[in-house]
Amino acid sequence: MSQSLLKVAVLASGRGSNLAALVAARDAGALPVEMVLVGSDKASAGALRLAEAAHIPTLALNPKDYPDRPSFDRALFAHVAASGTELLVLAGFMRVIDAAVVAQWEGRAINIHPSLLPKYPGLHTHRRCLEAGDTEHGASVHYVTAELDGGPVVAQARIPVGPGDTEASLAERLLAEEHRLLPAVVGAIARGRLRWNGEAMFDGRPVTAPLTLAQLS
């Protein structure tokens, strides 16, 4: 029996490097998903060009065309729902989403964030890591809730921080790990290993500590 493909939508505001990693994994046969939509709040986002090249439907909505944030979010997520999306992936989507809208997607939306959450939610994570003198940095994938970068963390990838590291070098090295971590998490969801049942479950057991790439492979 052939495995059915998980319908995935991605929201991104920037160049879309994590989207590119998902597309590459799909094209390599390593990710059993159908990418049904890539949406953005910026018509100029590189992620939309990537999606077009990969023959994925795209959508760009301008927040300035809506009277307030909830109105924009409701419109955007109505398009996501209409696409038949089963899993929504926020991959560099640089907006805080209205709590009432997020609540409708509980357990069906994940986000990748460049820090070892709960450390450094929000912006400038590499700078904050260096300023704190941390010896370790990383990326986290978590389920999306109304709290900014505050939903349950399901997986993390870690890198050491060296004495010569800068924001740019940390960002570059961490991005390579993000490009492994996000497809691994999406793959675990697509294969039914990672599920949401009021809490994150992996292979039938509650996720009590962030999963590693080794566990997800």
Automatic annotation (TrEMBL):
Pathway: Purine metabolism; IMP biosynthesis via de novo pathway; N(2)-formyl-N(1)-(5-phospho-D-ribosyl)glycinamide from N(1)-(5-phospho-D-ribosyl)glycinamide (10-formyl THF route): step 1/1. N(1)-(5-phospho-beta-D-ribosyl)glycinamide binds at residues 16-18. It catalyses: N(1)-(5-phospho-beta-D-ribosyl)glycinamide + (6R)-10-formyltetrahydrofolate = N(2)-formyl-N(1)-(5-phospho-beta-D-ribosyl)glycinamide + (6S)-5,6,7,8-tetrahydrofolate + H(+). Keywords: Purine biosynthesis, Transferase. InterPro entries: Formyl_transf_N, Formyl_transf_N_sf, GART, GART_AS. The active site is at 113 (proton donor). NCBIfam families: PurN. Catalyzes the transfer of a formyl group from 10-formyltetrahydrofolate to 5-phospho-ribosyl-glycinamide (GAR), producing 5-phospho-ribosyl-N-formylglycinamide (FGAR) and tetrahydrofolate. Belongs to the GART family. This is Phosphoribosylglycinamide formyltransferase.
